[in-house]
Amino acid sequence: MHAMHVRDLDLNLLSVFDALLRERSVTRAAAEVGLTQGAMSHALNRLRAYFEDQLFVKTPTGMAPTAKAAMLAPAIMEIMAKLREDVVSQAQFHPQTARRSFTLCMTDMGELVFLPPLMRQLRKFAPHCTLRSVQVPLPQVKDMLASGEADLALGSFRTAPDDLFQQLLFLHEFVTMVSVRNTAVGDTITREQFETLRHIVVTLASPGGAAYDAAFDEHGIRRNVYLSTPHFLAVPLLIDQHPDLIATVPLELGNVFAKLGTVKIVPPPVPLPPFGLRQFWHPRFHEDRANIWLRRLIKETFEHYPDVRTD
Questions:
Q1: Quick one: which of 19, 163, 193, 231 has the fewest CB in 10 Å?
Q2: Which domain covers residue 48, as residue numbers?
């Protein structure tokens, strides 16, 4: 087909063709595409002129496609499907009907804190969407967000790249976790006990503990570090099996593990600054409707943490 002839085709007419093909009625097709019956008849006449064929003719059972219309139908239906799925669907985001997977970068502690409340909210407001959690080194987070492989990063990335957008969700405090079988430590832990007992320290690519490490240094407290691990979830099991070990962890983590009955939490012997948990996203997706919706959902879910929304 000549290029000039291609430019003569109004793409809106393809939606008219598609509706007539499915509805077999000028009235019903007009209602579907939002036209009056007169405007629909005019659009059909334009289609007939363009393709030099009647395309749809009246029969006792409705508007039937001609042989040429039947020949054109597969290609036009495919074009309309691609437009709806790959173009129109990107212009808006309707959570109740959307079918997509959201990918979040977070640590195992982040999964423990964020996923249960977020899953409840997502299943309520976007029932056909799913979640995927990935743990990647900090230097790779920006590339994951830029490429769209991940939608958001959630956590305490104190050295996150400056060109990422970020939003504070809530502040976390620290507690010290002790085995319930460690009878030497009661409801509080003394500085002497804190310095004498051996510690488990969680080390991440971007240490969330940098602030409280500095606080210990400022107070001249030296921790007797026995084990460093990148995994928060291993800590309570290790303390249960080795009651002489202790660990200083975020409050929510300590609360969850204390419910298991094998460990208890006590205030650290010195005041520690809280740290902020944030969500991060790449500028490429700052105006993306689905990303905006997800960010808003997460902010609304956690802005009153720990009294998160569950309704």
A1: 163
A2: 3-91
Q: Is the dihedral of CA 70, 75, 76, 77 positive or negative?
A: positive
Residue 96 lies in a domain: no
Q: Is 159 helix (H, G, I), strand (E, B) or coil?
A: coil
CA-wise closest residue to 29 among 41, 42, 39, 16? 16
Q: Is the pTM of this model over 0.85?
A: no
Whether 37 and 10 have beta carbons less than 8 Å apart is answered as no
**How many structural domains comprise the chain?**
3
- pLDDT single digits (tens) 157-173: 766 677 899 999 988 88
pLDDT digits (tens, 9 = 90+) for 188-209: 999 999 999 999 998 765 444 4
Indicate the residue type of 120.
R
203-239 b/e (C-beta count within 10 Å ≥ 16 → b): ebebbbbebbeebbeeeeeebeeeeeeeebbebbebb
Q: Do 128 and 185 have their domain in common? A: no
Taking the C-alpha atoms of residue 228 and residue 237, their distance in angstroms, rounded to an integer, is: 14
